[in-house]
Write a structure and sequence with these properties.
Order of helices and strands: EHEEEEEEEEEEEEEEEEH
Mean pLDDT: 80
Distance between the termini: 74 Å
Low-confidence stretches: 6-10, 18-34, 282-286
Number of helices: 2
Oligomer: single chain
Number of strands: 17
Radius of gyration: 31 Å
Shape: elongated
Helix content: 10-25%
Length: 286
């Protein structure tokens, strides 16, 4: 980032008051105070708060107070957010405070919503972390997909959840499996132990302790999250006992499954046609 103060600017140095006043300055440090130095936002909050639109540059100041009797060299860095400092390393004389400007660039592609980061200050084997809270304005979009669904021979279901929107999602999942003769598995919707940030994906597995030994199974997944449309996907698998003698049985199961599916489609088509004829008769009577 290029700012007016970046690279060549030096931190502002202020002489600290006497020892009796020092505890008041250290009382709002972002980490537990220690005899030596503290690091806090200039406004004496316990965290940094930014709010702005995508494409903006937001600024604040970190105050590093050296309460000791020797010069203190502090190294500054950012984590989880694109932070830039007026100086990455600052040497603070004894009983002096250095105010170091820093900024965060909210790129044009940054999703609206809440974002988190950390300012880190390190010196003398000690580290202070100051949380950074960034709120980016704009319309929010919750979108979830379930992809790459696969059912292996042990009955374990593999799938990938993807956050396609710009909000943090807490997904739920339900699973239903149908065999040739009807349902063989029904797991109602439950919360998954995870959250998905915008653009994040996770690959997961769902074990099936007692899958059929001989059946043609279609598994249906339904993933939901607050504010997002339900995402559905399915996978198919023919389960056969080991051994070559069951090869013909497998073909029979596959043929039965295909015939069952065709019969369901025919029934659905017949029902739709019956509804259309009924509507036509009702219209003629009117």
């Amino acid at each position: 980032m290029r700012r007016a103060w970046a690279g060549t600017a030096t931190a502002a140095l202020l002489v600290l008051p006497g020892p009796a006043v020092l505890p008041a300055l250290a009382g709002t440090a972002a980490a537990e105070p220690a005899p030596g130095w503290t690091a806090t936002p200039a406004a004496r909050r316990s965290y940094v708060y930014f709010e702005g639109a995508a494409g903006s540059v937001l600024e604040d100041t970190l105050s590093v107070a050296n309460r000791g009797t020797e010069p203190l060299t502090v190294r500054l860095s950012g984590q989880g957010a694109p932070l830039a400092f007026a100086a990455r390393t600052v040497t603070v004389p004894p009983r002096t405070r250095a105010d170091v400007p820093f900024a965060v660039t909210v790129t044009a592609g940054t999703a609206p919503g809440e974002h988190r980061g950390t300012v880190r200050a390190e010196a003398g084997g000690r580290e202070v972390r100051v949380p950074v809270h960034l709120r980016v304005g704009g319309p929010s979009l919750a979108a979830l997909t379930v992809e790459k669904v696969r059912l292996d021979g042990s009955g374990t279901l593999h799938y990938t959840l993807v956050n396609r929107g710009n909000t943090v999602l807490a997904p739920r999942l339900s699973i239903r499996a149908e065999g040739v003769l009807g349902p063989v598995l029904d797991r109602p919707s439950r919360a998954l132990p995870l959250t998905l940030r915008p653009g994040e994906r996770t690959t997961r597995t769902e074990p099936w302790a007692d899958p059929p030994a001989l059946d043609s199974v279609t598994v249906h997944l339904r993933a939901t999250a607050p504010g997002a449309a339900a995402a559905t996907a399915r996978a198919e698998r023919v389960f056969l006992p080991p051994g070559p003698a069951v090869a013909g049985v497998g073909l029979l199961i596959a043929a039965t499954a295909a015939a069952s599916l065709a019969a369901r489609r025919r029934r659905t088509g017949a029902d739709m046609a019956g509804d259309e004829r009924g509507q036509a008769r009702a219209g003629a009577e009117r």
